[in-house]
């Protein structure tokens, strides 16, 4: 069997229905559309939720809950892999991103995401930064500056990354389970100082009580 020997199944191809060719054809005069009405006119298009004029289901059921759709923020996403086209030392702001074609359309702000690697030291000014993106920008020798969304002319805040430190204690390595052991030295010292102060207060009160007792005996 060859390609030109392949035939469609019988009945797969139906002849086109020719309307408006006289009464004897069965679809003459009104061409199968009936008399009058919107469906008999040319250009008729029915809405999907249209129910013939009665109150549609979407308007009959009660509405509950809250939708954030009218108040949502639309963000233009830019990844670090797209910023490699710029040279080192440049300041990348929303105007430069729009000029280079990285942001298009209407949006509320620009967010920098951390996909890809950044090899150039640049200053990036945007409305939001992901944690990974900010760390990679600083690691490359650049700066990540946040623009206020509601007040673009306000001063920008620079994002700086630093090493996490232990709270209220010193980290001592080499514990039995292989994890870092936290020694809360400052808390112990504070407790000792508080105990010493309480002892002094109690001793002062005892001296005061004894002195008052001696005075009472002297008066008698």
How large is the radius of gyration? 41 Å
Distance between the termini: 138 Å
Strand residue content:
5-15%
Mean of residue pLDDT?
Answer: 80
What is the tally of beta strands? 9
CATH topology of one domain: Ribosomal Protein L15, Chain: K, domain 2
Low-pLDDT ranges: 164-187, 214-220
Helix and strand composition category: alpha/beta
Q: Tally the helices: what do you get?
A: 4
Structure explained in plain terms:
There is one protein chain. The chain is of the alpha/beta class. Among the domains are: 71-159, Ribosomal Protein L15, Chain: K, domain 2; 163-220, no CATH class. It is built from 4 helices and 9 strands. The chain has helices spanning 57-60, 94-99, 131-139, 185-219; strands spanning 75-79, 91-92, 109-113, 123-126, 128-129, 143-146, 157-159, 170-172, 181-183. It has a 4-stranded mixed beta sheet. A 3-stranded parallel beta sheet has the order 1-3-5. The longest helix has 35 residues, at 185-219. The protein starts with 56 loop residues before the first helix and ends with a helix. The model is unreliable at 164-187 and 214-220 (pLDDT under 50).
Structural descriptors:
single chain, 220 residues, alpha/beta, Ribosomal Protein L15, Chain: K, domain 2, four-stranded mixed beta sheet, three-stranded parallel beta sheet, 4 helices, disordered C terminus
